[in-house]
Fold this sequence. Notes:
mainly alpha
Amino acid sequence: MACFSFLKLTLLVTLSIFLVYFLPSTKASPGDNSNEFKTCVATCLKETCSLNPSLPLILQLFAWSCKDDCSYKCMHQITTHAIETRGEIVQYYGKWPFYRLWGIQEPASVLFSFLNGFMHYRYLKVMKNQISDNYYMKNIYFGYAYACINTWFWSSVYHTRDFPETEKLDYFSAAFSILFSVFFTTIRVFDLRTPKTIILGALCFLAFILHVSYLTFVKFDYGYNILANGSVGAVHNFIWIWWSIRNWRKRPDDAWKPLSAVLYITVAMCLEIFDFPPIWGILDAHALWHASTIPLVGFWYDFLIQDAKIEVLRKSKGKMRLE
């Protein structure tokens, strides 16, 4: 009964997330569309940027232009007034008005992205030492870790400075790691071997190329990107839910872990739904979503390592019986 309760809750939250994903998404926001903001920026450009001022070196290093700086100052000028008059705090260019730090646009998200990447890096050594070289998933797990390190690196870059190029690299690397998750999960849960793994890998890579090609050459569609990643992520989650239910009695000590991880990540995704203005101008729902995944990384790798040891032991016993 506990398994099905978890499943029902996960399905409920996942369906709620999909409903939000179907809503249209755009980079334009009430803040940058307001006449007050446009007038403020135009005035700043005329009175300040026309004089060709030199920005502080740290801002230049992070590619801030005078126009960018005008937009930043006007955004916070309007936001400060809204806070003082208890008005509505709105988004600008698809983002909340964050306080920058040394030229970094979203310092909290950058920090949490770095910590996520570091956790994946840390477990490379742990897996190397604790997973047998004879285990067929070992190198695939290494590939997964490197894919996630790459994803969190570009997440850090994107949250440091939001440009079309950094945004695409963030989105594309996230899609790759999600597809890689489905790739290794399918191999592990269904115990696939060559040539099936090669065929599966080719299909996943083809899906990635088609996804990137559509966003690059056809239309950079935010709604489609979220829906595509969410759909693939849901497949990954449901495979592990099925594995947990199937192994609930065979492996009571750890069969609950994938189910718990799926439930945790699904509930944490609600932060992306119930968005709110940044606390202290730093912490918004998206930053907290990144923070929430940090402890899950260690929990998940610990399970994969434990699972690898169990599988190696089980198969070694099977060989001994045959002999």
